[in-house]
Design goal:
The protein contains eight helices and nine strands. With about 240 residues, it is of the alpha/beta class. The chain has one domain: TIM Barrel (Alpha-Beta Barrel), CATH 3.20.20. The strands form two sheets. Strands 3-5-6-7-8-9 form a six-stranded parallel sheet. A three-stranded parallel sheet has the order 1-2-4. The longest helix has 17 residues. It starts with 18 loop residues before the first strand and ends in a 9-residue tail after the last helix. It binds fe (ii) ion. Fe (ii) ion binds next to loops.
């Protein structure tokens, strides 16, 4: 519990997590920060809330955000230069958030995926319907030596009221990452209930900001006063800091 409080100010913050491992703060390559100035502002806000390190995860979603290792590496270099010029001494690395869609199989065949430490691959999927290749893709990731991390499982409404798929994913050894704002009801009441269910049943491994824009960081700041957020930060054995 003491990890939640910064020694200097004694106010609750996200210091217990330390590392944010899901965000869209690279400039101009997805639906996150449109330019490097916004990237710096988002990072400043998150540092102020106790974060110390970032592994940012631009979308790789060929239909909408056709990123690859080159576009992500280039945007990361731009951001690092800007951080240096602004005198901000903070470690920012990049992985990716892969959409499991029809194109994912060929992405997987090409290999050389952008990973979080531990050869972890962050994946997302459609919220409304189960992608036909979902189970096979996740299994193939494991066969290829990757550790799947499922981004914001609480947002996948196809899981339904039974929520058996959450347990199934956990049992198969996939790591689950909730979005912090989910516990506040930001996305929807159903998403909030799913997130609280995941926490209560000890099915979660990581918590991410999934920060795209200022509204997200503003709400994350306000959410520190939300009892659900405080419980969320205290309740789980978060693995975020192990990525440092
Ligand atoms: Fe995301």
């Amino acid at each position: 519990m003491f990890g939640l409080f910064r020694k200097k100010t004694s106010r609750a913050d996200y210091g217990a997590l330390g590392v944010d491992m899901h965000s869209h703060i690279l400039p101009g390559i997805d639906d996150g920060a449109p330019d490097v100035e916004t990237s710096l502002q988002l990072i400043r806000s998150l540092l102020d809330m106790g974060y110390r390190q970032f592994i940012t995860t631009p979308h790789i979603y060929p239909e909408i955000h056709p990123n690859n290792r080159d576009t992500i590496t280039h945007a990361l270099a731009t951001l690092r230069t800007a951080l240096r010029e602004a005198g901000m001494d903070v470690q920012v690395d990049a992985a990716a958030e892969y959409m499991i869609d029809d194109a994912f199989d060929s992405t997987l065949q090409q290999g050389n995926l952008l990973t979080l430490p531990g050869n972890r691959v962050l994946v997302e999927m459609s919220t409304m319907s189960v992608p036909p290749n979902l189970d096979q893709s996740l299994f193939q990731l494991q066969l290829d030596g990757y550790q799947p991390v499922i981004a914001h499982p609480e947002r996948y409404l196809f899981v339904g009221k039974s929520r058996t798929r959450f347990h199934d994913w956990h049992d198969r050894g996939y790591e689950l990452q909730i979005n912090l704002l989910s516990v506040t009801g930001y996305y929807s009441p159903v998403v909030k209930e799913n997130a609280l269910y995941l926490l209560k049943n000890n099915l979660v491994h990581f918590a991410g900001t999934d920060a795209h824009h200022h509204r997200h960081t503003e709400l994350l700041g306000m959410a520190l006063k939300d009892p659900n957020m405080q419980r969320c930060l205290e309740q789980a054995q978060w693995l975020n800091s192990t990525l440092a």
